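Researcher: I'd like a structural prediction for the single chain below. Treat it as a standalone chain; there are no partners to consider.
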Amino acid sequence: MSNPTFRSGPISYKAEEDVTKFRLVQVGENGVKHAAAAGPVFGAVTENANAPKDEQAENTLALGAPGIVAVHIGPATVPLEVDGAAAEIKQGAAVYAAADGKVSTSGSLLVGVAARNGDGKTVRTTLVTPVIAPASAG
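Model: Treating it as a single chain, here is the predicted structure.
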């Protein structure tokens, strides 16, 4: 039996596209980008990251958001941006994936449970990620 290569905490990935903090992301061959409402959802980011525009030479000073971002997976609890009014989400409510990496109280892909009442634009959510939408029966 081998030991796991990863146990807990965020995993670092390159940004395939620019990502905004407090959003759900999917992982692809070239990095992470905002997840769609239908998924798949790998986890959530809590900081901004920019996709590299051009390959930089070694020892180049670059200002701005990094091209690497930490992706949190379940059972982490993180703030997530709500598509709609965050105050309508009460602690204990199911949280679903919405468009552009945001979350809502309805949808087809459960990504977590509200750990606290929504406030401002975000809701603190305990993640159940990674998740993939089930194949449709038929």
